[in-house]
Design a protein that fits this description.
This protein has 242 residues and is of the alpha+beta class. 57% of the residues lie in helices and 13% in strands. It has 2 domains: 2-76, 2-Layer Sandwich (Alpha-Beta Plaits); 87-241, no CATH class. A hairpin with a 4-residue loop joins strand 2 (29-35) and strand 3. The chain is elongated, with a radius of gyration of 20 Å.
Amino acid sequence: MIHTYNITGMTCNNCVAKVKSELLKIGEITSADIQLNAPQATLSMHKHVNQTVLQVAINKAGNYTITESGHQHPSSISTAPEVEKSWLLTYKPLLLVFTFITGISLVASWQNDFHLNNWMHYFMAGFFLAFSFFKLLDLQGFANSYSTYDVLAKHWRGYGMLYPFIELALGIAYLTQWNPTITNIATIVVMGFSAIGVIQSVLEKRKIKCACLGAVFNLPMSTVTIVEDLLMVAMAAAMLIL
């Protein structure tokens, strides 16, 4: 369901970013489109969220007020329950990206007498380059989503803006095989730390958007995201040993 609200008190894009970040922390809200020129919030929800809850959330961002606009989107009027997508259909974008990276890295490593260590280098390069690309398509959207669950990004939004560039740097480092020891240690630290917020969100059963592919795809947070982060940690640790 989709609802539109009026918001007063916003004066700049920073206000918009703060309000959006706080609204997205509400588990039932799947997306939030905040406009400054005509101060409104268009919210997509799993189920209706009371206006009081919305007001409490944006009060954390600053001195803002949210009220019903009176406009109801046609899609918010439901005559039948929504059909829940299958697991395969839900995670199709992520599975396709992983399959593509796996295939390309196998082809690349096979040209140089296949060795597991070489394949993992190519895979990690492809992973970080591809995932940083999707995040950079909408950097601000990614930062807003990431701040809803990452331990550091919750308190410092700048980390969400910086994170895709960290992944890009790691991708280039793996591709060029620059100082493998430092690169692998950095991967373990970055991905291990990222996994903390993901694990907390899954354990708390929060229905929030996963930002692994940026703001381009609407992927729900689940154990799939935990596996993704910990797989990178495990592969980096393996390359330190092999």
